[in-house]
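Request: Show me your protein:
***
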Amino acid sequence: MKFLLCLSLSLMALFAESKGCFVDENSQNIIFVKDGETKSLGLKEKIYKDQRCAFDESSFYVANLNNEIVKVASEKEFLFALPNVGCKVSNILLDKEKIYVACDMANVVTIAIFDKSSKKFISKNFNNVYKISSFLPLGEGVFFTSFNGKAFLLDSKLNTKEQKSVGFAPISACKFSDDEIFIGFRNGEILDLKSGAKKQVLRSKISALACAGDEVLVAGEDGVIYKFDKSFKLKGKKELFSGEIKEIFIDKNVLVGVDLGNKTKSLEINSF
């Protein structure tokens, strides 16, 4: 299981910030959001369903079905390999000089951190954790939730600083600039992790969350984007698709939603 890097040099100047992206196996492109616009980048290697990706100011990082991380850069470069054969990369995050990777396997998840400057790599297994549902860099460590209702806060060495039960089937999480975390659940509830306040805001599943300014943007399986303040008061809503939204990204006050067929639509956050 290798982590490889490969890139198109002419595209390096396009990317200045760490933003959201996803892999579209239908068009064989990476779809990403930059300067409030949806853009695409073709890869030379075969793209498969459910590959994960992330990007920074110079490179893309894509996980394939063999758990190889493909970095779109001027040449291929080996970075690191996860120790667990058979796990599936479910999340890749970039934060400054670090790459965070989460890999699921049955009731075990592997969390790894790779420092791009020092080339140091650490990983740790967490047992009795059923699939990661959200994954956020937090300070020098990482925060994640699992579908069986567990939440972990890890330090920079992946030691557990805090572990708690947050309730069944958390689906997504987001954080504000002060590291305040909100979690969305399958039953339509939102949890403010810091205060412990929890409220059912939708009658159906929450499929994705994004924190922007002082607002929580919620994507539902009904294709609607809902806007709440931190006290869970509804401030507005707008239909984006007729069916479920699986991911949302925010850049330059623009929200981009992705449906189950990998179609994208955008709207300005202040428009509703």
User: Anything to note?
Assistant: The mean pLDDT is 83.
